[in-house]
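ARCHIVE CARD
CATEGORY: sequence design from structure
SOURCE FIELD: tokenized fold
FIELD CONTENT:
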């Protein structure tokens, strides 16, 4: 109810009269006391409506107007206000004044003729139709203003505001004013109305006046005094509200605020409003070209604008706007000035960069010089009006040229002086750099690999430090080091080629022995080019290993001159010269190896083959096309699951020639089937000319187990598969390492890798064709090989131009890109010559295996390596084969001036003379030689053609009949030099020979190998039975008697002769094999389903004679007897078969054709390192360990038991005895086997083996599994001895991952997993990531950073690389390293220091490719990097200072191992790595190149 009453109360209205001193100028002075301003500010407080000038001197017309209305008071209007108690009220404001006539300067006459004092005290005012007053301008123009009338009737005054001016009024005495005010007050007091004293103009107030005014108020019944300023709008409202509260006694007493306090509040309010307004202006106005009208319209609705306009008015707002515009313009000009000044040095650099031209010019003269430059207008613009910042050019943003008048300013002059100084300093620094480089080049102390710290003292002086920082010199030094290192490496590579004879004589394989490596060091050690890399032993070791790999596995890719290998150049030249039929017609896939087609056999019983074939087909396109590296290949699959001897299951058919085979197994039975099938397929090709199935690339794959039988475990199947793969020399893929299986678990990436390997194999088959037989001579008469040296300083185009441009030159029918056919008249007949143009390293592979009638060997007269390679090649060529030596020179002048050229020419001539070869030199300045220069050589070839062919067939027959184990176990026989169709890959770390199933398999050596295979299968009875059965078949089986075909059929292959000679061996030496002629279980004709081409009836021992065709066109027959000289005791130079047949033919006296020797025996310049050939036993470090000496002692005492199978061994060659001794040893050191990781082949996981980004989120950057594992280990396992080194149970690790895969909330503590199981599962998580946690791209940067010698700089560089990691990798890496750091802090208990942890973890985190030499030599670096991250974890991840390094005493095995010198002859005992170790990599006999973590684990 109370609220309702209040709402019904009418708004109170008060009538207030403002009075004070008024009158003529004499009475009030030149200006009023501010009554009008006070009323104006109260009624219309807005600054724009406030007027300071309110005149009281009016004309008669203005006085009589409706505003004044002939009254001496003004009606200011009605005002509504809310007082302090929030009650609204209305006030009518009246000002009592006295208007002066502008004519008489006396008060105007009005209706009230009373004096001002009496009129001012009037309480009732009335004036008909009187209008509200605004300002002086309203008078006379009332129609232009709002016309509001004074209320009708009499206006009853409720109170008075008595104004006192406390400023220094002009011509006014303050005391007189007080007297007037005192009289006025007395008159007002009579009205009994409230009175409030208002001190006006306090902003200009005088302290005494204010004090006197307060005294006056006190004297008059304690009047209330309000100090005001209408101009500053201070306390104006307070004055009126105070009077209202006096009028209405019900209101509380108003608190009167002193003037200065109120002024402070008002100033703060104005300042705040100004700040907001300026912010508004800066936000809206961005361009200095804006105008006030448009901007004010934009700001009109903004409260910031409205508040400021209300307080300060539009003019001040506009003034602030103009100030802002001026500031924007100034800033714009300064920005342009900065841009111009920034461009000025560039202009100087472009126009006057020659110091000699301006060195002594002032800025004024330089300005004139600039104008003469052709590109002056490109940089500068000449303005008509200046200065530029006062013209419109400042707004020409498109023109970025510099105003030319800017050159007259001080900053421009300073820039010119700075340009001069810069040029002078650059000249001096360039001189310093040049002097430093010259110092480096001339200093004998600067050698390749010398660190900066060692070299600095020799080459630095004070002048260098004065002009350049040390980092600049270090950069120059680093570039110089790179140059001299690259040059030293090139020279060292050339040195290795110059010693080609040594490398080929040592018969190096993929794992050369320490003795052979020691010989290389001894021979090369005194060479300056070897010593030049003394400080870069790792790089030197890598170069030697790389060269050994090239010698052992020569391809275009491993050639030191790659990609400029001669073979590649020749292929390009020949292919561009001819369009081969194979390019036109791809239909005959057997005769033309189509590189766009892949034929793949999939072997596996019980449905394995077909299931995998279906999965591979699912990855193909609709037309059985498979995409590899962006190229489409036609993929033909042949799954085989039955007896491979049956035609329906044969590896090869008339329309299908396999390029590779995938062998699948998931049990012992299926593995036995694979082994047996491969044996049968290879056995069926023995004796054939096209026996490529013997070398068919194989891949053995363990797939999913579909049923656990006989208690088999995954571990045993993996071990058995690895053993079989090792014996078959094939690739082994288990589920953990490859992720391959049948069904839904096939890994497309691994299938692509297998297919890529097959493509490489096919490409290598195109390089050198397979061994040719006599039958092939129906197409060509002569086969000539032309050898060129890779990297020779002559163009193969110039050398081969006469051959390829000859009219008789045609495309070779065999489809090779390295051979052509020539038809040349030789003697009385034309001869078809197949000319194979090859590099020397490709020619090595056909030197023994292919029928060649002659060699044309080129060498550069000015390159030692070229002649050295020629010598190495000719050393193994039989002395009956004609040779044409061709020396390439720069011309006669070069020969006279160059001592090396003369020496090389002389040596070439002497070699040709010693071997009865031909020699010629061709000046390459005139390369257009003619083929006629080779005609004498071709005649020699024709003359020796018959004996060459006969000897070639004799050697093949002897090889087939040989019982010497050396035939299939020596590095030569098994190396890619004799088997050019092997995969061309850097991953060949062991000799990829198929010694178990060579075409030469016929005697106990083979059965011995099979016995080894069977014994190493660890209880695999099924496989043992298969292998032993196959062994007995090979030892006992003989072909059925077949009548020999007439001699018209000329193809007698190796297989034929092996059976022919077996009867002699079995008849003579029964001690070799105790097996009968026929197997006990009877003869199986199906084993010989494919008859031999020719089987000769065995002769007696006195008629061991072979018939070979003399010439296919003449039908003649030559007879060759296999005889040895009477003194043959194994030391002769004949073929290896001589040693085995000596006991059979010692009675032979007459020789029809003597056995040829090698050219090394006829020329002293050939085979100069031949003494090393017989000084080593066959085998690598794995075969010749510390037990070698013990075996040699046993050899001197003779062999007992099963080993004594060759009683005549004591009369043989010592080399042969070493070979047999190394092969008979029973205790062969087991090779370290790769530890298989947990497989996911048995279930599909969405968590393990997927990219890291799929198992982390921004909210949870750490994989949940890793987080759980580490929390568990840190809670329970930090004191576990050997944590991360000792692996857990693999089945438990698999179970842990499987359970987590099903439930991510798995509690490890509840499941009671061991700490080692959890640790192993965590490592397995990182091993199975598609990409390593440390990205490969970052590994390169880490290795480069690690090369920095300064420790602190190295750590900071590593930290910078760490910042480049992908965010996900960085967070997980930080988490893991922090954990390992915590583990290492407990090393006194768990024995796992940061070094031990890095050895166990770096392969998991970085996963380098050990097939490359660079990765192999960097293993120690990788381990050290991870060790540094663990040691300095607080520095790398938590911005802590670098901690002090641990003691430098080499306590760990890896530290000791790293100090072993490069080449040592002391054998190092190497124990198998424990199963928990990281997967071992192929070891080299050079200890520093061993991965350091393997060295450490071998010694544990």
């Amino acid at each position: 109810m109370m609220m309702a009453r209040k709402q019904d109360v009418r708004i109170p209205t008060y009538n207030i009269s403002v009075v004070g001193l008024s009158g003529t100028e004499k009475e009030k002075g030149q200006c009023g006391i501010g009554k009008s301003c006070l009323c104006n500010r109260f009624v219309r407080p807005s600054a724009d409506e406030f007027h300071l000038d309110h005149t009281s001197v009016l004309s008669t017309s203005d006085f009589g107007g409706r505003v004044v209305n002939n009254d001496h008071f003004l009606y200011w209007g009605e005002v509504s206000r809310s007082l302090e108690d929030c009650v609204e009220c209305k006030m009518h404001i009246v000002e009592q004044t006295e208007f002066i006539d502008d004519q008489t300067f006396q008060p105007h006459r009005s209706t009230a003729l009373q004096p001002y004092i009496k009129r001012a005290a009037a309480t009732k005012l009335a004036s008909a139709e009187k209008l509200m007053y605004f300002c002086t301008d309203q008078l006379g123009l009332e129609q232009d203003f709002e016309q509001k009338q004074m209320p009708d009737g009499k206006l009853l005054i409720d109170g008075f505001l008595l104004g006192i001016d406390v400023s220094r009024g002009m011509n006014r005495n303050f005391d007189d004013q007080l007297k007037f005010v005192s009289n006025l007050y007395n008159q007002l007091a009579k009205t009994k109305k409230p009175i409030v004293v208002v001190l006006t103009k306090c902003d200009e107030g005088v302290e005494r006046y204010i004090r006197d005014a307060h005294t006056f108020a006190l004297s008059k019944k304690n009047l209330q005094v309000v100090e005001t300023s209408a101009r500053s709008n201070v306390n104006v409202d307070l004055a009126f509200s105070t009077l209202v509260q006096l009028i209405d006694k019900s209101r509380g007493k108003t608190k009167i605020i002193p003037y200065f306090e109120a002024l402070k509040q008002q100033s703060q309010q104005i300042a705040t409003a100004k700040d907001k307004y300026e912010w508004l202006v800066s936000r809206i106005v961005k361009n200095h070209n804006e105008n006030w009208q448009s901007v004010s319209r934009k700001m009109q609705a903004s409260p910031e604008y409205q508040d400021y306009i209300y307080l300060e008015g539009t003019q001040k707002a506009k003034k602030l706007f103009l100030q802002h515009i001026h500031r924007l313009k100034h800033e714009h000009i300064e920005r342009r000035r900065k841009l111009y000044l920034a461009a000025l040095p560039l202009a100087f650099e472009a126009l006057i960069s020659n110091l000699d031209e301006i060195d002594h010019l002032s800025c004024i003269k330089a300005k004139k010089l600039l104008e003469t430059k052709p590109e002056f207008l490109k940089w500068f613009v000449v303005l008509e009006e200046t200065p530029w910042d006062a013209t419109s050019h400042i707004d020409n943003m498109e023109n970025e040229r510099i105003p030319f008048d800017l050159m007259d300013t001080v900053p421009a002059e300073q820039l010119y002086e700075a340009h001069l100084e810069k040029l002078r300093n650059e000249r001096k620094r360039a001189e310093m750099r040049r002097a430093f480089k010259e110092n480096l080049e001339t200093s004998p102390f600067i050698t390749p690999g010398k660190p900066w710290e060692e070299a600095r003292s020799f080459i630095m002086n004070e002048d260098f430090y004065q002009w350049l920082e040390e980092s600049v010199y270090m950069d120059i030094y680093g570039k110089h080091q790179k140059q001299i290192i690259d040059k030293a490496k090139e020279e060292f590579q050339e040195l290795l080629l110059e010693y080609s004879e040594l490398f080929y004589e040592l018969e190096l394989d993929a794992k050369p022995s320490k003795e052979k490596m020691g010989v290389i060091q001894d021979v090369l050690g005194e060479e300056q080019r070897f010593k030049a890399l003394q400080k870069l032993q790792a790089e030197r070791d890598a170069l030697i290993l790389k060269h050994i790999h090239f010698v052992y596995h020569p391809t275009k890719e491993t050639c030191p001159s790659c990609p400029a290998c001669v073979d590649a150049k020749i292929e390009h030249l020949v292919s561009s010269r001819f369009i081969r039929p194979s390019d036109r017609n791809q239909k005959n896939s057997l005769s033309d190896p189509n590189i766009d087609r892949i034929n793949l056999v999939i072997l596996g019983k019980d449905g394995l083959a077909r299931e995998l074939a279906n999965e591979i087909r699912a990855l193909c396109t609709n037309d059985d096309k498979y995409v590899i590296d962006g190229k489409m290949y036609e993929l033909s699959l042949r799954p085989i699951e039955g007896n491979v001897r049956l035609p329906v299951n044969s590896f090869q058919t008339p329309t299908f020639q396999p390029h590779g085979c995938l062998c699948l197994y998931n049990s012992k039975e299926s593995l036995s089937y694979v082994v047996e099938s491969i044996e049968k397929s290879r056995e069926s090709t023995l004796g054939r000319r096209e026996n490529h199935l013997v070398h068919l690339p194989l891949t053995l794959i363990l797939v999913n187990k579909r049923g656990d039988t006989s208690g088999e475990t995954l571990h045993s199947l993996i071990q058995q598969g690895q053993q079989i793969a090792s014996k078959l020399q094939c690739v082994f893929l288990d589920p953990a390492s490859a992720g391959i299986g049948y069904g839904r678990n096939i890994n497309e990436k691994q299938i692509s890798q297998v297919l890529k390997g097959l493509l490489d194999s096919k490409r290598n088959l195109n390089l050198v064709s397979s061994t040719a037989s006599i039958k092939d001579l129906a197409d060509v008469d002569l086969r000539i090989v032309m050898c060129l040296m890779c990297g020779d300083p002559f163009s193969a185009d110039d050398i081969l131009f006469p051959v390829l441009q000859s009219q008789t030159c045609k495309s070779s029918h065999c489809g090779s890109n390295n051979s052509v056919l020539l038809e040349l008249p030789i003697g009385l007949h034309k001869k078809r010559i197949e000319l194979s143009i090859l590099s020397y390293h490709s020619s090595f592979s056909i030197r023994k295996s292919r029928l060649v009638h002659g060699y044309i060997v080129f060498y550069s007269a000015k390159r030692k390596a070229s002649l050295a390679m020629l010598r190495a090649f000719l050393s193994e060529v039989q002395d009956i084969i004609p040779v044409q030596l061709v020396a390439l020179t720069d011309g006669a002048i070069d020969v006279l001036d160059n001592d090396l050229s003369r020496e090389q020419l002389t040596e070439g001539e002497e070699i040709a003379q010693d071997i009865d070869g031909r020699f010629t030199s061709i000046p390459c300045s005139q390369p257009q030689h003619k083929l006629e220069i080779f005609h004498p050589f071709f005649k020699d070839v024709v003359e020796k053609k018959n004996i060459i062919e006969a000897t070639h067939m004799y050697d093949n027959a002897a090889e087939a009949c040989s019982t010497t184990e050396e035939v299939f176990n020596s590095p030569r026989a098994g190396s890619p030099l004799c088997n050019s169709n092997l995969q061309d890959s850097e991953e060949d770390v062991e000799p990829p020979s198929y010694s178990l199933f060579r075409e030469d398999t016929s005697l106990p050596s083979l059965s011995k190998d099979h016995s080894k295979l069977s014994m190493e299968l660890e209880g695999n009875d099924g496989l043992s039975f298969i292998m032993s059965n196959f062994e007995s078949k090979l030892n006992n089986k003989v072909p059925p008697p077949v009548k020999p075909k007439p001699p018209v059929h000329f193809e007698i292959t190796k297989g034929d002769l092996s059976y022919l000679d077996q009867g002699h061996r079995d008849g003579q030496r029964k001690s070799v094999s105790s097996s009968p002629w026929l197997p006990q279980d009877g003869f199986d004709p199906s084993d010989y389903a494919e008859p031999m081409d020719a089987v000769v009836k065995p002769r007696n021992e006195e008629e061991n004679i072979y018939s070979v065709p003399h010439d296919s066109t003449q039908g003649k027959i030559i007879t060759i007897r296999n005889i040895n000289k009477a003194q043959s005791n194994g030391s002769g130079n004949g073929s290896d078969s001589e040693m085995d047949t000596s006991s059979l033919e010692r009675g032979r006296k007459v020789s029809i054709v003597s056995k040829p020797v090698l050219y090394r025996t006829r020329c002293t310049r050939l085979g100069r390192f031949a003494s090393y050939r017989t000084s080593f036993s066959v085998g690598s470090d794995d075969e010749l360990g510390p037990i070698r000496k013990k075996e040699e002692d046993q050899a001197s005492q003779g062999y007992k038991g099963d080993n004594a199978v060759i009683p005549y061994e004591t009369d043989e060659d010592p080399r042969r005895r070493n070979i047999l001794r190394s092969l008979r040893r029973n205790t062969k050191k087991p090779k370290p086997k790769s530890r298989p990781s947990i497989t996911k082949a048995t279930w599909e996981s969405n968590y393990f083996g997927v990219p890291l980004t799929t198992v982390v989120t921004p909210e949870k950057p750490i994989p949940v599994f890793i987080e759980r594992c580490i929390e568990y280990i840190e809670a329970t396992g930090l004191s576990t001895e050997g944590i991360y080194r000792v692996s857990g149970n693999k089945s438990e690790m698999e179970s842990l991952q499987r359970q987590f895969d099903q439930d991510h909330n798995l509690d490890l503590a509840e499941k009671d997993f061991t700490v080692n199981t959890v640790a192993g599962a965590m490592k397995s998580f990182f091993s199975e990531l598609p990409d390593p946690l440390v990205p490969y791209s970052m590994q390169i940067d880490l290795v480069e950073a690690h090369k920095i010698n300064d420790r602190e700089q190295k750590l900071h560089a590593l930290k910078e690389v760490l910042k480049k990691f992908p965010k996900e990798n960085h967070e997980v890496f930080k988490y893991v390293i922090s954990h390992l750091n915590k583990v290492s802090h407990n090393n006194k208990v768990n024995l796992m220091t940061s070094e031990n942890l890095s050895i166990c973890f770096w392969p998991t985190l970085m996963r380098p490719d050990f097939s490359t030499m660079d990765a192999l030599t960097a293993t120690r670096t990788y381990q050290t990097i991870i060790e540094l991250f663990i040691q300095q974890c607080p520095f790398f991840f938590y911005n802590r200072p670098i901690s002090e390094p641990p003691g430098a005493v080499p306590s760990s095995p890896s530290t000791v191992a790293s100090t072993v010198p490069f080449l040592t002859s002391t054998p190092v005992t190497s124990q198998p790595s424990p199963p928990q170790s990281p997967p071992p990599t192929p070891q080299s006999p050079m200890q520093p190149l061993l991965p350091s973590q393997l060295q450490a684990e071998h010694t544990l």
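CARD ANNOTATION: DSSP finds 58 helices and 27 strands in the chain. The mean pLDDT is 74.
SHELF: design records, drawer C
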